[in-house]
Design goal:
Length: 406
């Protein structure tokens, strides 16, 4: 039973949330897809992603623009409120057709309640959670009833759209490889924005508050709240994960493996794998596996853009620039849907950085500064080999062009 007083309060809060949504005319690029899914599919839609990516604002924008929509924030519910009973009341008595539920993880047993709504109602639901870990688990429970969409950190292209109001078309991989000189002439003036993007700007929450404390607060909440709850971890695990993040951030992109984490933190290799899996599910890191069948399957562990510098706590930023460039590359290639691996030799000799699979082609990329040369391509059999440089130079393809793939 839903108390009348609560319904009146929720209506007031929903109207206020819609007004807030109208205050933000610029929308994340994911907005159009979410709108399409709500109109064209039967499935419910869940929005996952790191804290601070703008999930709440996105939900309020949708509520403001859709007819017969209603917004609720589950963390304002009193104990014992059943989302199934509430949805039925809103559907039957108020004509609600779209229900936006923010912070759905605050509702105990939300997965089972959503199943009932899906099976016994025509109401469409889109929901968010600040805990990506909870949504990942919920996806398995809801199975065919749910489409889970990731709201990523900004791409470089989307960052320029929000930060400067500059709209630049996407570029294709074919144009990146074959037409990079003329393309670079149109975007080279944004080369100085690379540093701001990688140090703070990739996280949407930093648009209004460009402070390192915003990023460290996001990571702290992910570790202390999301991982502690969803991962069922101990306080000792929390301390180990914080130590792991600091160690990985300061180490740069090389030499980080399950074995090195185990050795440096004094934990088992199994624990190291568990921690890395949780950090990946929470959208703090991304992992890239090595290419080839005869190499150890140790992943390359990279941070989401803008996290490394702020977690490294005063480490020499110039020493971290190689890892930062790689994170920019991987973030944009994966965001555009490409499959890639890093290259690892059996004998430990230095190889080019990545192999990308594109239309039955294998393309080798080496990433570095403006003076980067082709020395590491020696002995590489693949025909397509490219150097990506930052800042852009005549030695290769400017790295920032990958920031416009999506």
């Amino acid at each position: 039973m839903i108390p009348n007083g609560l319904v009146e309060e929720l209506i007031l809060l929903s109207n206020t949330a819609k007004e807030d949504g109208r205050r933000y005319p610029r929308k994340r690029f994911l907005y159009a897809r979410l709108n399409h899914l709500l109109h064209e599919t039967r499935q419910f839609v869940g929005i996952a992603g790191l804290r601070g990516t703008g999930k709440t604002i996105l939900l309020r924008q949708l509520a403001a623009e859709l007819d017969h929509a209603f917004y609720v924030s589950a963390d304002t519910f009193p104990p014992g409120i059943n989302i199934f009973d509430l949805s039925r009341l809103l559907f039957e008595s108020f004509g609600v057709r779209y229900l936006m539920v923010d912070e759905i993880h605050a509702i105990s047993g939300w997965q089972g309640q959503l199943k009932k709504i899906y099976d016994f109602s025509d109401l469409r639901i889109i929901f968010t959670s600040s805990s990506s870990l909870e949504l990942s688990e919920g996806r398995h429970d809801l199975s065919r009833r749910l489409t889970l969409e990731l709201l990523p950190l900004f791409s470089f292209r989307e960052y320029l759209s929000f930060k400067k109001g500059i709209e630049i078309p996407t570029i294709s991989m074919d144009d990146l490889l074959g037409n990079f000189r003329s393309l670079y002439q149109t975007v080279y003036s944004y080369e100085p924005d690379f540093r701001e993007f990688c140090f703070l700007g990739a996280l949407p929450a930093c648009l209004q508050s460009p402070l390192p404390s915003v990023i460290t607060a996001v990571v702290e909440k992910v570790v202390q709240k999301d991982m502690l709850t969803a991962g069922k971890l101990s306080q000792e695990d929390m301390l180990n994960i914080k130590s792991a993040l600091l160690f990985m951030a300061r180490a740069g992109g090389e030499g980080i493996s399950y074995s090195s984490l185990s050795r440096n933190l004094g934990i088992t290799k199994y624990k190291a794998q568990q921690y890395v899996s949780l950090m990946q599910s929470a959208s703090l890191i991304t992992i890239v596996l090595p290419y080839g069948a005869n190499v150890l399957p140790e992943p390359k562990i990279l941070f989401a853009p803008a996290l490394r510098v702020n977690l490294a706590q005063g480490s020499d930023q110039d020493r971290l620039i190689g890892a930062i460039r790689e994170e920019f590359f991987v973030h944009h290639l994966k965001g555009a849907g490409f499959t890639l691996n890093y290259l690892k030799s059996l004998r430990g000799q230095k190889l080019p950085d990545y192999i990308v699979f594109y239309r039955k082609r294998k393309i080798i990329f080496e990433i570095g500064g403006a003076g980067k040369g082709p020395a590491q391509f020696k002995g590489i059999a693949e025909k397509e080999k490219h150097i990506l440089t930052q800042p852009g130079s005549s030695n290769g393809i400017p790295l920032i062009l990958t920031g416009f793939l999506w």
